[in-house]
Amino acid sequence: RAMDVTELLDGLNPPQREAVASPLNHQLVLAGAGSGKTRVLVHRIAWLMQIEHISPSSIMAVTFTNKAAKEMRSRVEELTGISPKHLWIGTFHSLAHRLLRTHWKQANLSENFQVMDSDDQLRLIKRIVRGLNIDEEVYQPKQAQWYINAQKDEGLRPQHIQPFGDQWAQTMVTIYSAYEEACQRAGLVDFAELLFRAHELWLNNPSLLTQYQQRFRYILVDEFQDTNTIQYAWLRVLAGNAIPVMAVGDDDQSIYGWRGARIENIQQFSKDFAGAQEIKLEQNYRSTGNILKAANSVIDNNPTRLGKNLWTEGDQGEPIALYAAFNEQDEARFIVDQVESHFKNNDRTYQDMAVLYRSNAQSRVLEEAFIRAGLPYRIYGGQRFYERLEIKNAMAYLRLLQNRHDDASLERVINVPARAIGEKTVETLRQYAREHGTSLWQALEQAIRKDLLAARATTALQKFESLIDEMEVTCQSIELHEQVDHVIQTSGLIEHHMKEKGEKAQARIENLEELVNAAKTFDPDDIEAVDENGEPVDVEYASPLAAFLDQAALDAGDAQADEFEDSVQMMTLHSAKGLEFPVVFMAGLEEGLFPHKMSADDPNRLEEERRLCYVGITRAMEKLYICYAESRRMYGQENFASPSRFIREIPHDTIEEVRLKATVSKPVSQQFSVESAQEATGLKIGQQVWHAKFGEGTVLDMEGQGAQARVQVSFDFDGTKWLVAAYANLRPM
Ligand code: ATP
Ligand code: MG
């Protein structure tokens, strides 16, 4: 079913039409969220095929996820009736991969090269570091991994890097070099290498490049604001002066700066792709007036923007619901209640609803609340809490305490974190266990007693044995959550991740600390066991730990709805990019959590957090809920949090506070006001104060009222902190 011109332009506004129907030259579509950028891109592809009669195999479209690529394909087919099977559509990574598979020889790869995921990569780097006799404690393999990938993202080979006598950098380059050789020898390619190699493929093979430049007639890139240096370079070389490019993006939605994405590529595009037609889309079709107003007003606080307007013809819609939860459990309960009532009353399906959060670790409490309520949910683009690597490691230690003969758990953690128990040693244990029909733990004991191994290995095993024994003894006399805490500390897991770099390591630590919280709130009575006939039974557990492990296994077992089941989508704000949902819950809008504590003091990172908030708000079509908890167990302890500054940046007249509690509280505008806080604390902004522990500082901000009044103080030596005035005992100077 082919479409004609009018049909293709149907359902597009004038600037969208201009973008879709313009002649084949460079285009930069720069526009805010929900203005139809992705829609334009899809229609443009259809236009190219249908009206310009360009063959699908001559069109390349770059999307942000493979899932988005799949969706785009089916939208194009829907529009044109032409099979888009031959379209070159995918992520930068998948397109690069495809090229390298075809041209492995020119890329100087072996025919059967293997793509390594990030775990494989780390294992290889570890082996290399050891092989080079480099001190693993000083030069962490994880850091080396981060370093290598960052160099590749910038397009740098070891020989391009000049460490200038910097010992650390020098060693990193040495590792990078050895890693590169090892990969080349073994035919291994990591993710960053895919892009890098594809770029070099162009540079080193001019005739091949020409061939592709003749083949492709048009290139389109969605989410352009999040391209990194090497991706942009690859694109630029390919396009050359030959292929027109349409780049589509929104500087306000650049949220991967921490992973090397460069907003500046937007401005660079206009320079490099001369004469690019710039198209602005300003009408938003996704969200109600209130939601849009909130989003616009939040992002307006970012000083460095290209600047755009966004308006809607749609209704103002319902107000944004703001819920001040008592704590994180209350927050989760509230969300569950709202989901249930939307489902029952407002004829919403579950998949109409999404729960978005800043940090991976937040999902645990939400998941549990959903499981308890029997609501179907899916974690989009991520793993469920109990499936995450660091959690599995911690659970393996706990299981070992419970049962030394749990071989799988022992194998998992015997050398995590690294304690010089090598694969050879473990293999010896396995063999002994097989031959003597024992568990690995028993094999380990025998190996020590009978001196079956070299002295070094025996010592390492002895250490491990006494570590586990010590843990068990200590854990016998402390409470469950203290046990979990003890285990993640003494096992070295926390320290292990602490030494790693980057956001991911931080998330792993947060998850581990979240496990302590899980233990703290765990109630064995919540376990619902059934017998063979499905009748509920009371189970007697040998210990709270045994019950906890059981519960975790159940949670991990069957919680997640399968892909096609109608289910609520849970995801981090990062993975929500480009998506839309009628009902959106944003959870955990508290200072320290969102904006994240790691970003609060750095203006650039704070701007990126704010863009993330903008992304979150603009995912909502009809109803947005914003939740924060007055107190939250986070990073292993109970914290009183103040509401995120982003809440204050939302106009009061778009917000309606939800009050479920019987208590009457003042409206949010007054709760947050500086005046009420000044009244309560007797302090003024700008005033010098003295704190018994932190010393001298300046009052930057305050909020709340009465006993809840909080003061933000910038201490001369201790950084900026929010303090509850009633406890802080700040003395005016
Ligand atoms: P984001 O920045 O979040 O990626 P976007 O700019 O890509 O957003 P789209 O996802 O393409 O926006 O469009 C947002 C919504 O508005 C979609 O549901 C889309 O179908 C709808 N839409 C876009 N343009 C129009 C239009 N001219 N008429 C009606 N609906 C439209
Ligand atoms: Mg989009």
Question: Can you offer a commentary on this structure?
Answer:
This protein has 733 residues and is of the alpha/beta class. Helices cover 46% and strands 15% of the residues. It is built from 29 helices and 23 strands. A hairpin with a 2-residue loop joins strand 16 and strand 17. The radius of gyration is 28 Å and the shape is globular. The termini are far apart. 43% of the residues are buried. About 1% of the residues have low confidence.
Tell me briefly what this model is.
This protein is of the alpha/beta class and 733 residues long.
Strand content: 15-25%
Which structural class fits the helix and strand makeup?
alpha/beta
| Helicity range | 40-55%
Q: How far is the N terminus from the C terminus?
A: 78 Å
Low-confidence stretches: 662-671
Arithmetic mean of pLDDT: 87
Count of extended strands: 23
Cα shape:
globular
What molecules are bound to this protein? Answer: adenosine-5'-triphosphate, magnesium ion
Gyration radius from CA atoms, angstroms: 28 Å
Q: Count the helices. How many?
A: 29
The largest β sheet comes out as: 8 strands, mixed
Topology:
Layout lengths: L4 H5 L4 H8 L5 E5 L5 H14 L8 E4 L3 H15 L7 E3 L1 H11 L11 E2 L2 H14 L9 H13 L13 H20 L1 E2 L1 H14 L1 H10 L2 E4 L7 H11 L5 E5 L15 H8 L4 E5 L7 H11 L20 E8 H18 L7 E5 L5 H11 L3 E3 L9 H14 L4 H7 L9 H14 L3 H10 L5 H22 L3 H11 L2 H6 L3 H19 L8 E2 L5 E2 L6 H15 L9 E5 L8 E7 L15 H15 L2 E15 L2 E4 L4 H4 L6 E4 L9 H4 L2 H8 L6 E4 L3 E9 L6 E6 L3 E6 H4 L2 E2 L1
Parallel strand pairs: 1-7, 1-8, 2-3, 2-6, 4-5, 6-7, 9-16, 9-18, 10-14, 10-15, 11-14, 15-16
Antiparallel strand pairs: 12-13, 16-17, 19-20, 19-23, 20-21, 21-22
Helix pairs in contact: 2-3, 3-4, 5-9, 6-7, 6-8, 7-9, 9-11, 13-25, 14-15, 16-17, 16-20, 16-23, 18-19, 19-20, 20-21, 21-23
The structure holds adenosine-5'-triphosphate and magnesium ion.
